[in-house]
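Q: My labmate handed me this sequence with no annotations at all. I'd like to see what the chain might look like in three dimensions before we decide whether it's worth expressing. Could you predict it?
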Amino acid sequence: MTTACCRPAWVAAVRSEQLIGGGGVALEGPLLLTPRVFGDGRGFFFESWNQRTFEALVGPVAFVQDNHSRSAQGVLRGLHYQLPPQPQGKLVRCVLGEIFDVAVDLRRSSPTFRHWVGARLSATNHQQLWVPAGFAHGFLTLSDQAEVLYKTSDYWSKECERAIRWDDPELAIAWPLAALGGTSPQVSEKDGDAPLLAALAPGELFP
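A: Here is what I predict for the chain of 207 residues:
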């Protein structure tokens, strides 16, 4: 399942879609990217990254780091973000299994502040989610195992990293928990102790 989309457009070998948030409003910034896949009896081929294509969609972005995580079913990572001077944009894809990937608007001046979007990314659909700076990011592993690769537009910074509770009632993210067969998500101690959005001072968010 993917949340409803609007404004689909093809740029070279990629289709981009603006996602409709959990509140029924389109969010400016995040994009769901679907590559044009060429397949036959031998297998398949697609461009997983093309600088010119990406910049035609979102403007100049310089990625500096690639991350790779492996998670068991039910593992929930997030919601994470980094503040200036080292905010991070992330381009996320799942190369093994399936995840539910989420972005939350933390820009206080945005008309969609506190709204979220989500999409199922998998090794089958090859889709990627662009999560710009100004958004928190997290995902829930739906398959037995999942491997997630993501590019970041700045380096990790202990001083700038922040987190928000994944189950914050103010955000009301519709995590597909039914896919876990009645078990609760597995979160790290650090993520479990993350504050609620309402407890954060304005300086802990984006302008």
